[in-house]
Amino acid sequence: MAIFTEVIRILKQKSSEIKNHIKCSEEEQMKYLIIGNGIAGVSAAETIRSIDQDSDITMVSKEKTPPYSRPLISYVVSGELKDAEIIIRDADFYEKLGINTQLGKRVLKVDADQKKVFLESGESIEWDRLLVASGADPRLPGVEGTNLENIFTLRNIKDAKKIVSCCKHHVKKAIVLGGGLVGFKAAYGLLKRGVEVSIFITSPYPLSQVADEQSGILIMEALRDHGLKVEVGRTVEAFEGRDGKVSGVVLKDGDAVKCDMVVVGKGVDPAVDFLGETGIRLNRGVVVNTRLESSIPGIYAAGDVAEAPDIVWRENRINAIWPVAVEQGRIAAMNMAGLVTSYVGSLARNVIRIFDLDFMSGGIVNPPDEKDYEIRTSYDERKKKYKKLVFREECLVGMVLVNCIDQGGVLLNLVSQGRKLRNLKKTLLRTEDYYPVLETSWRV
Ligand SMILES: Cc1cc2nc3c(=O)[nH]c(=O)nc-3n(C[C@H](O)[C@H](O)[C@H](O)COP(=O)(O)OP(=O)(O)OC[C@H]3O[C@@H](n4cnc5c(N)ncnc54)[C@H](O)[C@@H]3O)c2cc1C
Questions:
Q1: pLDDT at residue 27 above 90?
Q2: Which of 96, 187, 371, 405 is the most exposed place for a label (fewest CB within 10 A)?
Q3: Pocket residue to mutate for ligand 1, from 59, 300, 321, 352, most atoms within 8 A of Cβ
Q4: CA dist 150 to 44, 289, 315, 321, 369, Å?
């Protein structure tokens, strides 16, 4: 027993030595460059430094601010948090890790042959390994009047502050375009500020990317019960203005609705404009392999910009959520620093509290065909509890839970484990207490 313990101790010590003290000789020293100061970039920088303590790391970001929690910016809009309260690393974070920064500088171009990145400021930075962690940019509707004042997006802290400042100038009525997570969060923030809010959604129900129809309808009812005007199947045709400021929206059906402010939450596009000349493989985002490396060796991608393997869809997808960005930043960094590590894939997942309604979804929520998938649902109208389980080849590949999310994480684990569930399918639908019905070794 003593020998066994000693072996374990030595192995642990060795592995931490490898992890923490890969010392590089002069010629082995790398120049790591990270485009993006969001969570994918931060997670990557910290991981590289934990493996390689000598090489150069530079982070470049068009935003000047230190890293902050993007999901919390709507709480700055609502006034529940101050901008300083959403910062996720102390001011000395870069210095402590020996990271060079180029903050407030936009990357205009990447030259993959010269291994250089060109900034708007006219400067250029060389790299041996490059991580693209540039996130995504909000999509604008591209209709007449989009340039009017008081039309906002909600992607960064600057946007949140602009919305707050606008609210201080006699904003009575706001229109939010889009019924996704960002649209919701914006509407919630404005409502908290006492602004009257209407949401116009093109899809037939809110959160259509992460909910199914039944849960979408329950969400819509919850929103309406709490004073939000939600209108579905409504698409903007143009913005109207007065004195350069937005004064209303015109909808495709011809209706015109007055407002003092608009927040556009109609989805995002991966921020890849500076990669155009590289010849890198792009689809929606940067297409990467299981090492999170792009089609150009030495260039990696992570976070909202990366189109990476997805566990249940069995294809590359963008799952633009915080935990995925953290994980991808870490795995990309390990590979950049020479520790070959395979990324198992991401899994779409969302947990949202909408006033008094709890919603959770994961994996494939709306299967593309009925042939390969088996769908089981249960609905308790009185308690407004809804459950949908999606199976493929006897495995759970997707789920939607409304007002029964307590042990939803157990189901989510089953989705990521890809277990054959066979005779458990009916039981999983019926119970909310999943642990007792699972084999002990499946419980994580
Ligand atoms: C309002 C809102 C609410 C959200 N709520 C949730 C939630 O509840 N749960 C959840 O999991 N996720 C949520 N998300 C999504 C989550 O915030 C993102 O998935 C996550 O922040 C992605 O991190 P990232 O590092 O990939 O990209 P980002 O955080 O977008 O970081 C990108 C970085 O790249 C920089 N950059 C971009 N282009 C350039 C350029 N050309 N030159 C230089 N720098 C550049 C940016 O300045 C930024 O520093 C929300 C997002 C928003 C906007």
A1: no
A2: 371
A3: 321
A4: 36, 41, 40, 27, 42
Using CB atoms within 10 Å of the CB of residue 237, give its burial: 0 to 12 exposed, 13 to 18 middle, 19+ buried: middle
Q: Is residue 347 part of a domain?
A: no
- Nearest-CA residue for atom 19 of ligand 1: 321
- Domain of residue 287 covers 2-137+269-336
Distance 105 CA to ligand 1 centre (A): 16
Q: In this model, does residue 72 exceed pLDDT 80?
A: yes
CB 398 near ligand 1, within 6 Å: no
Ligand 1 site, residue 60, Cβ cutoff 6 A: yes
Question: Could you tell me if 132 and 280 lie in one domain?
Answer: yes
Say which residue the tokens 């899994």 belong to.
347
DSSP-assigned beta bridge partners for residue 301 = 132
On the question of pLDDT at 24 being above 60, the answer is no
Q: What is the mean pLDDT of residues 53-82?
A: 97
105 shares its domain with 130: yes
Q: Same structural domain for residues 239 and 144? A: yes
Token reading at 117: 């990145």
pLDDT score of 11: 41
**Percentage of residues in the chain having pLDDT higher than 90:** 88
**Mind listing the pLDDT tens digit for each residue in 320-371?**
999 999 999 999 999 999 999 999 999 999 999 988 999 999 999 999 988 9
The enclosing domain of 238 has a CATH number of: 3.50.50.60
